[in-house]
Write a structure and sequence with these properties.
alpha/beta, five-stranded mixed beta sheet, Nucleotidyltransferase, domain 5, 364 residues
Amino acid sequence: MLILAIESSCDETACAVVRMSSDERTILSNVVASQVETHALYGGVVPEIASRAHIEAISPCVERAISDAGVSLSDIDAVGVTYSPGLIGCLLVGVNYAKSLAFSLGVPLVPVDHIRSHTAAAYFTSAELEAPFLSLVVSGGHTSLYSVPTPAEYEEIGSTRDDAAGEAFDKVGRVMGLTYPGGAAMDALAREGFEARNTGKRQKSERIRFPSPAINDDTFDYSFSGLKTAAVNHIHNLRQKMNIPDKGMIPHDEMAEIACAFTEAVVEGICKKLELAIDETSCERLVLAGGVAANSHLREGIQALCDKKGVKLYMPPLSLCGDNGAMVGAQAYYEYMDGVRGTTDLNAYASGEGAEAAKAVFRI
């Protein structure tokens, strides 16, 4: 079936057309209108500005997705849309547009959870990926571990109790003076830091060690607030010691070591809890997804863990790690097959808790 999918949960207006069946998972088009340059001026996403930008971009995105796919609106079998979680104003733009479009076309409307969609992006990486599996979603707003017995059933078995890994990366990068979003720059700086350690340019006595985000208990939960605070305090103290003005750039080699130490703590902490979950669930397949799944060090660390444990790892390509329409289309297919339908009463929900409470009305 052909699914037109819409994503507008944060600062990307995205639309895609995918062809899905029991034998096929194909992306026909995947259009993303990014607002990164706009929000970089403010050091982060401004919800009101993001919502207005979605209003301007959504119609052109849908039109281009249809054109790029080489189909017409009359060919569409269903419309999928992200309805939760996310910034409420942004979500409402996509939800209301999708409701109107589905109603006018006379096709089913399928509400889709944003986090499930990130996981579903992995279906495009391999025809072999089938449930059950574990899914680790690491993004700007989420760091969560799920048990996925079927494509339309998700049980959260671990999560962050405060900040998400992606938010922590962006905050530390911003305090160091990197432009928003800081993820890619932090990744590159960390690579330099690890190289300096490996070549002996950074002696062991000069290396930084930040606290682990893995909570010291028998859960699969994380806490990134302490790690973030430790890194921010280190940067402020370093500026004071070196008489660098507030917001002034610190030496490049010090920035590389900070990024290296911070990334090391994130990867080791995530892998520590993930290993416990693998052992307890005896999983054979793992999906790594979300915007922070594009981080090369996290990908390498989790790949090494999976190799050690004999677990098959599935990771979306970098182009599908960030918010996009194709991932929504993939999950929409499985929700549709599970009997999930939306009506003109469909609302958007900022949190997953509110969405779950309302979800019963979607079942047919």
